Amino acid sequence: MKSLWAHVRAALVLFHLTMIFVIAFPAPIGGMDRSNWKVASVQQDFAAWATLLHVSAASLEDAIYDLAVLYMRGRDAVASPFGPYLRFSGCDQPWRMFVAPVRNIAKLQVQLHVRGAGPDTWETLFEEASAEHQWHKLMFEQERLRSQMARWWWPAFRGVFNESCAYFARLAFAERVDADQVRCRYSLAPSLTPEQARAGVVPQVQYTEPLVHARPPP
To answer: I want to staple 182 with a disulfide (CB 3.0 to 4.6 A). Which of 1, 74, 157, 169 is the partner?
Structure first.
């Protein structure tokens, strides 16, 4: 009986290690959303590689996407049998590291509109990395929330961003009886080169399409 258990245990250990090995294959799961490929920093990467390879950026992007689709089909076919055990053991590692260099500084803004004010008059409650606008500072400084804020401006995370903005709106409405709307958006500015930073260049700031939440009727 002991000899049988030794063989069973060895088989289970081998199965577990095989599962870990297969699941560790790189998997651009979230990156398969083509809307993420249109983000400025990603397009800059395609342009840089296209110049190096003497091809057009569009053809390079299409070729890489087709290759990624084939790769993910093969990976899914190999990894899917391990799915039940993976979920049971809790060994999944969903984090994606070293996706691409970030060449745009994205800062979250939460703004409030006061009832009766002009349509373009918004009061900034919170702005990331701002010494002036620090509404609920401790909440926004939490590590888990900061990691989420870093990805909300990507198109694939707009739904989660909208849910989070709705929560911020509920907080603001509870604190400010004069507020009738809350909006959330990101300011985007290109990262400066060392030479530009030393020269005091001010980057041009653009804003994402805001998410607007109105106070619910009483």
So the answer is: 169
For 87-117, what is each residue's pLDDT tens digit?
Answer: 888 887 666 655 566 777 899 999 999 999 9
pLDDT more than 90, % of the chain: 53
The per-residue b/e assignment along 50-86, b for 16 or more CB within 10 angstroms, e otherwise, is beeeeeebeebbeeeeeeeeeebeebeeebeebeeeb
Spatial neighbors of 64 by CB under 8 A, at least 6 apart, are none
Cα–Cα distances in angstroms (integers) from residue 200 to residues 192, 194, 195, 203, in the given order: 10, 10, 9, 9
DSSP state letter for 134: B
pTM for the model: 0.72
CB 107 within 8 A of CB 127: yes
Name the helix (H) or strand (E) containing 159.
helix 158-175
Closest CA to 212 of 166, 143, 159: 166
Q: Dig out the tokens for 20 from the structure.
A: 């870990």
**Collapsed DSSP state (helix, strand, coil) of residue 102:** coil
Question: Cα separation of 126 and 116, whole Å?
Answer: 21
Give the CA distances from residue 177 to residues 89, 112, 202, in Å, rounded to whole numbers and listed in that order.
Answer: 48, 11, 37
Backbone angles phi, psi at 104, to 5 degrees: -125, 130
* Range list of H helices, 32-157: 34-37, 40-53, 57-79, 83-89, 137-140, 143-149
Of 202, 177, 176, whose CA–CA distance to 189 is shortest?
202
Q: What is the DSSP string of 168-208?
A: HHHHHHHH-TTEEEEEEEEEEEEPPPHHHHHTTPPPPPEEP
